[in-house]
Amino acid sequence: MTKADNMLSILWMLRSGKRKTAKQLAEALDIHVRTVYRCIDSLCASGVPIVADSGPNGGYTILSRFADSPLVFDAEEQKGLIHASIFAKEAGYPHSDALDRATDKLKRYANDEQLDALERHGLGLSVIEPPLDGAYQSHLQTLEEAAGQGRTLELNYDKGRGEASPARLFDPYGIVYWKGSWYAVGHCGYREEIRSFRVDRIRGLRQTDRRFERPASFSAKDYLLGRLLRDSKDRAEWETVRIHSREQVLNELSRHWLFGHALVERQPETATFQLERSTLTTYVPYFLMPYGTSLRIESALLVRRMREASARLLAHYDDMQHSNDTGEGVLDDEQIRDVR
């Protein structure tokens, strides 16, 4: 048997409440006494409250409060764990490998009927999320571990459209998943204030030797929602945008992270949003382009930015069309073979 199997077997034997010596455990499992000692050490390290009594009547016992705790999940609990792991993994949970090991243990010790039910329930649920690259997953894991250990990181961030910001020290207080995106919330050494950062825009993370203490009762989730949903006192930073379109289109817009938190009024074919002006000059025009002529927008600023973005896009493809028509920049068959 594997070490994990031996550990589980020892745990079940000690849960009986009877004191067992290392020799008794070794004989029952047909393993060496030294293997029993190693398994006991591993169980203690994982948090199992095993008590070792020396002397003629000594041996190993387990605290009653732990022995009485349920270690076996019923069918509904197993299904819930399988479904939760699917949601977490598809959302980019940073310790998906640990989830895999946990669900593998469920399946390993299930009988044929239970295993069949777990497999069917697992196949019966799907989550559609954009695939995350390795760097994204690595950043999430680094941020979560640094938050748990109180370790300061050095962070490199892309402000948008490829504009890099100065490297900064960052104390991650927590990571938050909201509407399809992960955010890191913590103290920014560059701004000397609490800030939030989109994890998909982080270009680099490096551990430092510095430590930090998270403020008592601080909630990364409450901070992020407060920042995204805040009613700014400086109205010059905000723009009211009214969009007319089909109800289905507006429903889709209102569910997106960029617009959902900014919705202030909704009618079947009209939606009014309160958006930061900075987003109107960066993300919003390019996000709305795929909707083409299905939108009618009431906002002079956004309409102007849409025209500018569309003009740049048109100029780009005009140049490409010219290159294709004249043959400039187009590889012939021999050049393609050379590249290969």
UniProtKB/TrEMBL annotation:
Residues 8-60 form the Helix-turn-helix type domain. Residues 139-206 form the WYL domain. SUPFAM superfamilies: Winged helix' DNA-binding domain (SSF46785). InterPro entries: CBASS_pafABC_assoc_protein (IPR051534), HTH_11 (IPR013196), WH-like_DNA-bd_sf (IPR036388), WH_DNA-bd_sf (IPR036390), WYL_dom (IPR026881). Pfam families: HTH_11, WYL. This is WYL domain-containing protein. It comes from Cohnella ginsengisoli.
